[in-house]
Write a structure and sequence with these properties.
The protein is an alpha/beta fold. The protein contains twelve helices and twelve strands. It folds into two domains: about 300 residues, no CATH class; about 120 residues, no CATH class. The strands form two sheets. The protein has a ten-stranded mixed beta sheet with strand order 4-1-2-5-3-6-7-8-10-12, sandwiched between helices. α2 crosses α6. This is Pectin acetylesterase.
């Protein structure tokens, strides 16, 4: 019998796990089986060729963001993958208002890609530029942005751990003598801001946390942590872009063909990656998991975590996340020149929208959901072309949704209601503006 068929029966072991333990006490052979399966399912995610979101620009409008070292007390716990020091980039603005962006860029899956990543700018800071710009997203100085006068903090991605890692040493299961310290890097940035800005001293201080792709996953996982760290005098708002990995109850189209049954892609990814990264998990989500005899590691992934985020959150998510579909869930089929089935695409869209729209009625959650087959390419504030169009949903852009969130404290729920050709409206994107325009 396939071992994974039995794994759900072991989930009761989570009841003995503490809230700080990211995975239940599976046997070594069970964890090996999960690891093998996860690598097979997810390895194409790590090798996607166009994964830095957004791209770094060294020329731009206005004042650049400048490379800044972490506080000395964090220097030994915030290294990039290769052990080089981590830096964040800061542009001074209103000292009582901060916008912080977590860069995306895939993640580590196995030894080969992790060690390769450590030789690049996505795993090492040794060749990072001194100054960078964000022309199109939430750290833009474009006066149309409600965040243009904020203090801007760009978190460059070099940990490969979706901003969840808590490693302080390069050793232990799955770490390959590399550092996964993304969550620690977020904590270091917060410490620096609290020490250097007039931040939190007045009740009208504002903090806007956002990130794209892996940074969107990091936004979900760190949102409540940021709010609890900054305290009651700071109004924290979060906006993950394409961070819902994965829609609820997702099963890769080809899992059964390699003998994987009884677990969803969500569950396999969460257990493996949480163990590998020593992931930080949202406290209230972990309490829920332990109470329900689920592995606390489930809190890594968006569909399980999002219902437990108490901080106001604006989710930007396409109906069909192209990266998830093309490079993970249907990847094996695509290599064989096949495609996802119609039923699979319909289910993917349904699971994405039903969960998010349901949550929007139960908690402070807004939603910007275009009928597009894209990942992050259309989820930013401004088009890369001066005369280009932004994606519009029900007459609103993502910029409109962010403005409402920041300036009026109102969360829009805008879901594309365009209609495609008869017979294919449930699985074919119908938005007229789905072009890559975020750089």
């Amino acid at each position: 019998m396939n071992l994974l068929l039995l794994l759900p029966l072991c989930f009761g072991l989570a009841s003995s796990a503490s809230p700080t333990n990211p995975y239940p006490s599976f046997t070594a052979s069970e964890l090996d089986q999960i690891e093998s399966t996860a690598v097979t399912l997810l390895k194409s995610w790590s090798t996607h060729p166009s994964f830095t979101s957004p791209a770094i620009t060294t020329e731009g409008y206005g004042v650049p963001m400048t490379k800044t070292p972490v506080p000395e007390s964090f220097s030994d716990s915030t290294m990039c993958l290769d052990g080089s020091p981590f830096y964040f980039y800061i542009r001074p603005g209103d000292p009582t208002k901060v916008a912080l962006f977590l860069q995306g860029g895939g993640l580590c899956i196995e030894r080969f890609d992790c060690e390769h990543r450590a030789t690049t700018n996505q795993g090492s800071s040794n060749e990072w530029e001194e100054e960078i710009y964000d022309e199109r997203n939430v750290l833009s100085q474009d006066p149309r942005s409600p965040l243009s006068n904020y203090t801007h903090v760009f978190m460059r991605y070099c940990s490969g751990d979706t901003w969840t890692g808590t490693n302080t040493v390069a050793s232990g299961p799955g770490r390959y003598d590399l550092y996964f310290s993304g969550h620690n890097q977020v904590a270091a940035a917060l410490s620096h801001l609290q020490a250097t800005l007039d931040f939190g001293s007045t009740p009208d201080s504002q903090f806007f946390l956002s990130g794209a792709s892996a940074g969107g996953i990091g936004t979900n996982n760190n949102c409540d942590f940021v709010a609890s760290t900054l305290g009651p005098n700071v109004s924290v708002k979060c906006s993950p872009q394409a961070g819902l990995f994965f829609p609820e109850d997702t099963v890769a189209l080809w899992q059964s063909r390699i003998g994987v049954n009884g677990m969803t892609t969500n569950q396999i990814a969460s257990i493996y990656l949480s163990r590998m990264f020593s992931s930080h998990h949202d406290t209230s989500c972990v309490v829920h998991a332990v109470k329900n005899l689920d592995p606390p590691s489930y809190c890594w992934e968006g569909s399980y975590l999002t219902p437990h985020i108490s901080t106001p959150i604006l989710v930007a998510q396409n109906f069909w996340d192209q990266l998830q579909i093309d490079n993970i869930l249907c990847f094996q089929d695509n290599l064989k020149h096949a495609s996802c089935t119609k039923d699979f695409l319909v289910d993917f869209k349904t699971h994405t929208l039903e969960q998010l729209t349901d949550l929007s009625g139960k908690q402070r959650l807004g939603l910007f959901a275009p009928s597009c087959y894209m990942h992050t390419g259309n989820l930013c504030l401004f088009n890369t072309e001066d005369d280009g169009e932004n994606t519009v949903v029900a007459g609103k852009t993502y910029l409109d949704a962010v403005k409402s969130f920041v300036e009026d404290d109102e969360l829009m729920v805008v879901v594309d209601d365009c209609v495609g050709e008869e017979g294919d409206e449930d699985y074919v994107p119908c938005s007229k503006v789905c072009e890559m325009h975020c750089g």
